[in-house]
Structure formats: C-alpha cells, structure tokens
Amino acid sequence: MENGPYDLKNPASRGEWQTYHRIRREVLFEASGLARTYDEDDESALPPGAQALLLFHDGRAVATLRLSLLSERSMEVRLVAVAQPDQGRGHGRVLLGLAETRAREAGAWRMVVNVFGGAEPFFAKSGYVRETWDDPIAGPPAPEVIQMAKEL
Predict the structure, then answer these.
(1) Per-domain residue ranges for the chain?
(2) DSSP 67-105
C-alpha cells in the first residue's frame, strides 16, 4: 500500500524484520520503562491472523504496528511505535490511517485499541472513543489500560 512518500508493508527481508523489532524494542520497551525484556523470537508477539506492519517514509522505516483480526468485522491495532527521531512529525497519524484503510479493505467496519493514558489524546484526535471490548488475545485489560474503538 503506497500513499505519496509513504509505504505500509509487511516486513519481508531480514533487515526489515530487524528494523521492525528495533523500533518496537526502543519505543515500546526501553523508552517506556517497561520492566519486561523484549523478545523478538516470542511467537505470541505475532499470533495467527495478525499482521506485522512497517511504515516507510521516503524509503526509510519510521514506524510499526500490529494489526489483528478479532472477528469477521473487527480489527485491533496494537503496539503502535514511531521511531524516536521521527516522533512528532505526523508519521503516527499516517500509520494509523493506512492501517484503517487496510482494515476496511479486509472487510472490517470497526477498529479497537488498548492504550495507556498518554496515548489517549492521539487516538481521540483520530476519531477513537472510549469503549469496552473483549480482547481475546490479551484478556481483560490492566487497570491502567484504556480501551477505545472507532467505526470505519
């Protein structure tokens, strides 16, 4: 999927997979202060039916997310990460928009997400609202998690 200088695709080469894992590790684990260790070989990080997606801007990888089919008409966006030097430049909004387009093309009419408080304004500006939903992948959310959804 291409959109001007942007290209959203599944990592294909060894180098693209390394970049995908590096961005996730640096942003979602190291910079956020999570006590867990990032394990790129953890098979649960990409369950069946999930897509690992890497966003390129002018040919350079800048962001990642995972898109998971929850039901016939609902998809979940997980683990959105924009590389630290590329944050604040609109890449996250483009990434989310392209993921929503991909979900619509797959027949989904709804996107859901689990967010931590700091990310709620980003998702709210993109049309997501607080809504409780069942997460068959992660189970019930932790108390600090905010569940949000958007009709596509």
Answers:
(1) 2-151
(2) EEEEETTEEEEEEEEE-GGGTTSSHHHHHHHHHHHHHHH
pLDDT digits (tens, 9 = 90+) for 86-134: 999 999 999 999 999 999 998 999 999 988 868 899 999 999 999 999 8
| CATH number listed for the domain at residues 2-151 | 3.40.630.30
What 3-state class would DSSP assign to 129?
strand
Burial 7-29 (b: 16+ CB within 10 A, else e): bbbebeeeebeebbbbbbbebbb
Q: Is 126 exposed, middle or buried (0-12, 13-18, 19+ CB in 10 A)?
A: middle
